[in-house]
Each structure stands twice: as C-alpha cells, then as structure tokens.
Fold this sequence. Notes:
Shape: globular
Oligomer: single chain
Radius of gyration: 17 Å
Strand content: 35-45%
Amino acid sequence: MVTEERMGHKGTIQVFAVDASRPEQSNEPVVVITPSPSKATVAAWSYLDKYIVAGHDNGTLALYDWKREEAVLTAPGHEGTITDLQMWKDGSYFITSSKDHTARLFETNTLNALKIYKSNTNVNTATLTPTQDLVVLGGGQSASEVTTTSSRQGKFEARFYHKIFEDEVGTVK
C-alpha cells in the first residue's frame, strides 16, 4: 500500500502479511519503506515478489528490496508525476503512465526504458493487453477538474498503441 504525505507524516510504502485462512488480518505493516527525497505515488510487486517497483511524484522509478527496506536501484522514468504502474504478468517488465503526456515500458531488473507511447494530454493510466501486442492509455484531466469541464474539452479518451512499434492504432472518445 502507498500512503500520502498528510499532516506532517511522510508518505510510505507499507507491506502487510495476508493469511487467507484467517478472516481477521493484522492492521500492522510488516515493513514500512519511506521513499526519499520524492514521495511514491504508485507501487507494484516484481517477479516472485522479490522487489517492489515504485513510481514517484518527481518522475523517478525505484526498485526496493522490501526485506532490507531500501532502494537497490533508482532511475529517471518520466518528466512528470507517475500516475500509474502496471506489471506484466511474469513481472519481467512494466508500463507506467505520467502527467508528462507519455506512457513508458520498462524492464524490471534494470529500470531501462524499452518503449515510449506519446499522447497529447495527461496519461492517467496504462495497461498491457494480455492477448495482443497492444497498449491501452487512458487520459484526460485530473479527477479534481472533471466537474468543471465537458468530456470533449477534458480529452477523456482511451488510446490504443502497438506495443512493439509504438504506433497509435485507435482511439475511443
């Protein structure tokens, strides 16, 4: 779980033990990671739950060894806040979205950017389709501005890109 900075408390990444055989779960985290200097906005487990990959509000990525509670690798990811991070099913790579109008595909072990998908508006979410070589981006303005703008002005749309060639292949408005 990623927490926000609020009322003097730092934003954290918290890991909780889950025991599916018990109806009650502990409210106490097993591990608390405090990212620095930039707060984490999104996080996901890597392959075999070895690392936690986090995206930050300054656009950086970090690979955390959650058992040692420390970053083992950091890398530039985007030029704006990372808004979403979705891991591929085997954990070997992941896609991020950002307010910098792009989504990017990264290799998990190295945090190297493999592909860049460019949009003309903020990208709020991105996902990899499991059955075809497609990437889907959801974009538009932030939720806090939704009530003051029509859907056409807010550029609320889903864009489809070829995962390998990075070409836009369709749009749903």
